[in-house]
Amino acid sequence: MRTLCSSTLIGEFFVIGFAGLVAMKDPDLSMATVWTVSGIAMLLCLVLCGLVTRPGGVALGWALQIALIASGFIVPTMYFLGAIFAALWWASVHYGRKVDEAKARFAAQASSSTPDAA
C-alpha cells in the first residue's frame, strides 16, 4: 500500500505546485498566501508518504483529498483534478491493501512449506 499511496501523493505534490502558479494570477490573493497554503499542502504530501502506513495516515490522506477538491474554489480546474486524485487515492488504498494481504499470504505459505532444518 505504501508504494501506491506514495506515488499518488508525489503526483499531488506536483499538481499542488502547478495550481499555486495558477493561483498567483488571482489579483485577490497575495503571493505569500498562495505559497503558504500551497507549501503546507506540498509538505503534507511529502510527510504523508512516510506516515501512510501508520495509524491515521490514510485518514490524513483523505483530508488532503478533500482540501484538494475544495481548492477548486480558487482554481476551478482543481475540482476535476482533485476528483481524479481522490479516485486515485481510493484505488491506492483499496488495491494496496489487497496487495499487502496477498504478500502476507504468500509469505505465510512459503514459511509453512519450508521444511525445518533439523
Can you tag this structure with a few keywords?
about 120 residues, mainly alpha
What this model shows, in words?
The structure is a single chain. The chain is mainly α. It has helices at residues 2-23, 31-51, 57-70, 77-113. The radius of gyration is 19 Å and the shape is elongated.
Task: Outline the secondary-structure elements.
Elements: H1 2-23, H2 31-51, H3 57-70, H4 77-113
What separation lies between the terminal Cα atoms?
36 Å
Global Rg: 19 Å
Mean pLDDT: 93
Structural class: mainly alpha
For the sheet with most strands, the description reads: none
List the total number of helices. 4
Order of helix and strand elements from N to C terminus: HHHH
Please report which band the strand proportion falls in: under 5%, 5-15%, 15-25%, 25-35%, 35-45% or over 45%: under 5%
Helicity level: over 70%
Can you count the beta strands? 0
- Overall, the morphology is elongated
Q: Low-confidence runs (pLDDT<50, min 5 residues)?
A: none
Quick take:
With 118 residues, this protein is mainly alpha-helical.
